[in-house]
Amino acid sequence: MSKAIEDMRAKIAYMGAIMFDRNLLDMAGGNISARVSDVVCLTPRYSGLRRQWQLKPEDVLLVNLDADILEGTGEISRESKVHLRLHREFGEHGTAVIHAHSRNLMVFASMARSMPPVLEATRKFGEIPVVQYAPAHSLELSENIAGAIRGQEARIRKQAAGAFAPYHGIFVMGKDLDSAADAVERLDTNAYCLLMSKALGASDMMTEEREEMENIITRYEMQHSE
What we know:
7 helices; 7-stranded antiparallel β-sheet; L-fuculose-1-phosphate Aldolase; single chain
């Protein structure tokens, strides 16, 4: 096994614990994968329920793009279909996929609503779409998520792109593992701001505020690109 793969398994275990502590992953599930060359390092099934995201590097499975386990004794994640589909189709743009049950993002997933960016830190992701419903763990879900990510390759190369699976959670593909994890937290904070804006009596989804922000930023970028 190469040192790069060993390091990635350790990093995935470390990242899973951090994201669990920050309510970005939960005991009900979620999964993390990152590709090193043609080997995918993937968190095993029951990482939350049975291990509470306290993984050891050797717990992280090594699989190929056809879902064959190359090393590791755990069960392959049931959402591996989505992970491997994204790695196969968008692998030239990014190397990491995170499926998260982040607390604030789950509100949008549960309501099957797309989410607009309302922070400068989330503009780069655009509006997070919701795909057509398909059962969890199904091939159809992997096709729907891939369809929503398609066309967002530039966002992956810059940092990440994501899509909601209705009633289920969010899938994010990033240029690397750090970028994908960072994107999940930024998007979760964006969701929190939208939800809490209701307490301030803000307009629905803050449409007017977002338009004004975009106008100001566009003018700024035009002035400073000359």
